[in-house]
Amino acid sequence: ATRLQQATASLTLAECYFAAGLFRNGEPWAARALELSREIGGTNSLPVRTRALRHCGRYAARMGRHDEAVSLLREAKELARSLGDALLAADCEYAMGVALLLATHTAAAIVSLETALRAARETGDAALIGSRLNGVGGGYFRAGDYRTAMIHYREAHELSLKSGDRRVESGALGNMANVHSALGEREQTGPLLERSLTLALETGDRLAE
């Protein structure tokens, strides 16, 4: 196999491990894909390098290395833009927002998350928009702006019912439960949380945000 094929295979494994929530298993494969893509050089390796940077950044964020994550994801975003891949650039922007949120840089996180949401709305993809709405809501929740957070979560929930995306629905319900809990509205928290957990178990969702 060529080095480009090896890099692509490593990236596929990294993506599978990330989706399964097995971060320690998958991170070495993302790093290997990035290493190979940089060794290869040239324009042919750029798409793989961009995706590898994205995954290395997402792994770094999950492993608590937030500054490293933001740097990797920013580089991935710029490469995606240079390739004319607006969707991948927006995805990197969203991942960067999540990393900033985990690093408690809440204001900067909201800017990135809102940018990614605007890009998602342009696609008209209800499932993608719903996912991004949950993320933006998370930013406002961390900022203590529960009203704005709830507006985003409710829209995410409405879209999930239209699109049939139960992962987004589970996340939105759980997020709404968190808002009610933060406001001391315990009687509304339980039913939402129970439904969210039921959906999460049904979908096998280990990365609900």
Layout of secondary structure:
Blueprint: H1 3-19, H2 23-40, H3 46-62, H4 66-82, H5 86-102, H6 106-123, H7 126-142, H8 146-163, H9 166-182, H10 186-203
Helix pairs in contact: 1-2, 1-3, 2-3, 3-4, 3-5, 4-5, 5-6, 6-7, 7-8, 7-9, 8-9, 9-10
For the structure shown, list the relevant keywords.
about 210 residues; single chain; mainly alpha
Task: Provide structural commentary.
The protein has 209 residues and is mainly alpha-helical. It has ten helices and no strands. The longest helix has 18 residues, at 23-40. The protein is elongated. The model has no long low-confidence stretch (mean pLDDT 93).
Q: Residue-averaged pLDDT, rounded? A: 93
Question: How many strands?
Answer: 0
What would the principal axes of the Cα set say about the shape? elongated
Q: Portion of residues in helices?
A: over 70%
Which series of helices and strands comes N to C? HHHHHHHHHH
Label the structural class: mainly alpha
Query: If helices are DSSP runs of H or I spanning 4 or more residues, what is the number of helices?
Result: 10
Largest sheet features:
none
Radius of gyration: 18 Å
Kindly estimate the percentage of residues that lie in beta strands according to DSSP: under 5%
Q: State the separation between the terminal residues, measured CA to CA.
A: 38 Å
Indicate the low-confidence ranges by residue numbers: none
Please summarize what this structure is.
The chain is built from ten helices and no strands. By secondary structure, the chain is mainly α.
